[in-house]
Amino acid sequence: MTYRTLLTLITLCVLGSGQATELIYTPVNPSFGGNPLNGAFLLNKAQSQNDNQASSTEKDFVTRFKESLERNIINSITRGVADGEITDGVYDTGDFRIEVASTGNGVMLTITNLETGEVTVIEMPTFGGGN
Questions:
Q1: Is the pTM of this model over 0.85?
Q2: Vertex 19, ends 18 and 23: CA angle to 5°?
Q3: Is 100 exposed, middle or buried (0-12, 13-18, 19+ CB in 10 A)?
Q4: What is the rounded distance in angstroms from the CA atom of residue 124 to the CA atom of residue 103?
Q5: DSSP class of residue 54?
Q6: What is the pLDDT of residue 88?
Q7: Cα–Cα distance between 70 and 121 in angstroms, integer?
Q8: Mean pLDDT value across residues 31-58
Q9: Contact yes or no for 73/81 (Cβ under 8 A)
């Protein structure tokens, strides 16, 4: 046996005795087939890295009081128009100007949003009391 043949035999033995295994990928995220027990860990990790803060929508007392008062005035005007007990005129509620004008068989309301300038016109027949 020559040196070259011996080297070839040793190489073949070493290569033949080595065992190859399959590489299997297992995802970590349970959304993609990973272990469901990883879900809580991944959620906590994501929440700890989240820098976004929800904007505060809580209003102070004065703002809530103003809005409540405005709603009550608008409700009073609405009841008066529906019952036919409201007189023609202009009513300011803060953010809105309501103009009430009698027509032949009803009432025309022109509501102007003072902040945006948006105008809404409502025509409706009157019911009950005043006519």
A1: no
A2: 135
A3: middle
A4: 9
A5: P
A6: 83
A7: 19
A8: 86
A9: no
Kindly list the distances between the CA atom of residue 103 and the CA atoms of 5, 22, 128, 129, in Å, as whole numbers in the listed order.
Answer: 117, 88, 16, 16
Task: Tell me the one-letter amino acid at 107.
Answer: V
Name the DSSP letter for residue 56: P
Provide the 8-state DSSP code for 114.
T
Q: Which ranges of the chain would DSSP assign to H, the alpha helix? A: 3-17, 39-49, 61-83
Pairing between β-strand 89-92 and β-strand 96-102 as defined by DSSP bridges: antiparallel
Extract the tokens encoding 20: 């190859």
Structural contact between residues 77 and 100, judged by C-beta atoms closer than 8 angstroms: yes
Q: How far apart are CA 110 and CA 90, in angstroms?
A: 9
- Return the structure tokens found at 111: 């509501």
Position 17 pLDDT exceeds 60: no
Exposure class string for 45-79: b at 16+ Cβ within 10 A, else e: eeeeeeeeeeeeeeeeeeeeeeeeeeeebbeebee
